Amino acid sequence: MNKSTVTRILFKLLLIFLVVTIYFYFQKPIEYRCTNLKAVIPIDDMTLVIDDIRISDRDQEKLNSLASSGIPWIYEKILEAGLPWNWTVKLFNVVAFYTYTPRTMEKADINISGALLYPAEARNSIKSSDAWNNFKMSISPGNLSSNGARFNSSNNYCSVFCGGTFNLKDLNKKLTLSITDKINNKTIYIYISPQWKKTRPLNQGASGLEKDLNSPVRSFVNHLANNNIQAAMENIMPVLRNDFEIPQLDINFRNDEIRYTSEYIAYLMGYSGAYKITAEAGRFLNEEQTDFEATSDERLIFYVAGNDRDGKFYITRVHQPYVSGSDTDPDVP
């Protein structure tokens, strides 16, 4: 077999591989993310922020049925190989990509998510299991049949999310989101003319759920404390990275525990809504992390907003540490 023959065979194999890859890519479910939603609802002394609606044409009912039959044999073989975990995950992703995912038109998967914030002094007062005792939610058209929440220790908020089914024939219709304050028995109706961004994500898990508002701030501070500037900058809004001014960390922020306090602000320059997150260095005095003793008078003030391109949260601004209670406490821009 001469060299030209080998080259032709390799070229044909590569062409077949590309065709198969393109085929499986276009078989992947489509996700629609609403880019013009920002609902802020008072719930007694708390604030409920709903800022994410995603609809995917994956058939979650069939996926659940397949999952109940056990782990596919190929995944078991990968696990039995005893490879390093990062390689195992990569192989799982490859197998998942070249596996058919059931899709549906009438029972598309809808997920709505946001955050329930409560006063800083009431930190840890609401647990995940109690969050939905304060309000209920429905959407029309659509049917919401499940809900959940995730509580992050020491924070003054919990992420909330609910899911159900949606008929994609109604995708271009106006949506009505109704939220009932169970404490005061009041219902608020929010009318949305949705603007959808269509994507075909390779990761077909439920997206937009269990958002951790503090995650980009916590990651930024941790990487900065370890002098890993490049990794820290991954948490900055992409369009702002070139001119972003990195703060100098007080030694307490490098060595002590950090407490984060979140607050929703209706407007931040360039963004329709954002979160103000205050970071304090100190130590927690109990296992529940409700009691905290600061070891420094300095704080870091972060502003975190969502990115319309990928729906993720990034840091947009950070103020240099200032002395708590001084006149240098910056106002929201």
Description:
This protein has 333 residues and is an alpha+beta fold. The protein has 2 domains: 31-59 and 103-199, Immunoglobulins (Immunoglobulin-like); 215-323, Nuclear Transport Factor 2, Chain: A. The chain contains 7 helices and 14 strands. It has helices at residues 3-25, 60-68, 73-80, 85-97, 215-225, 229-233, 251-255; strands at 31-34, 39-43, 46-56, 108-117, 135-140, 143-151, 157-166, 175-181, 186-192, 196-199, 257-265, 274-284, 292-306, 313-323. The strands form 3 sheets. Strands 1, 2, 3, 4, 6, 7 and 10 form a 7-stranded antiparallel beta sheet that branches. A 4-stranded antiparallel beta sheet has the order 11-12-13-14. A 3-stranded antiparallel beta sheet has the order 5-8-9, with no helix packed on it. Helix 3 (73-80) packs antiparallel against helix 4 (85-97). The longest helix is centred in the first third of the chain and has 23 residues, at 3-25. The chain starts with a helix and ends in a 10-residue tail after the last strand. The model is unreliable at 322-332 (pLDDT under 50).
| Uncertain spans | 322-332
CATH architecture field of the largest domain:
Sandwich
Number of helices: 7
Secondary-structure content class? alpha+beta
- Find the count of extended strands (DSSP E, 2+ residues): 14
Mean pLDDT across the residues is: 85
* CATH topology name of the largest domain: Immunoglobulin-like
**What's the assembly state of these chains?**
single chain
**What is the strand content?**
35-45%
User: What is the molecular shape?
Assistant: globular
Total domain units = 2
The sequence of SSEs as H and E is HEEEHHHEEEEEEEHHHEEEE
CATH class of the largest domain: Mainly Beta
Largest pleated sheet? 7 strands, antiparallel
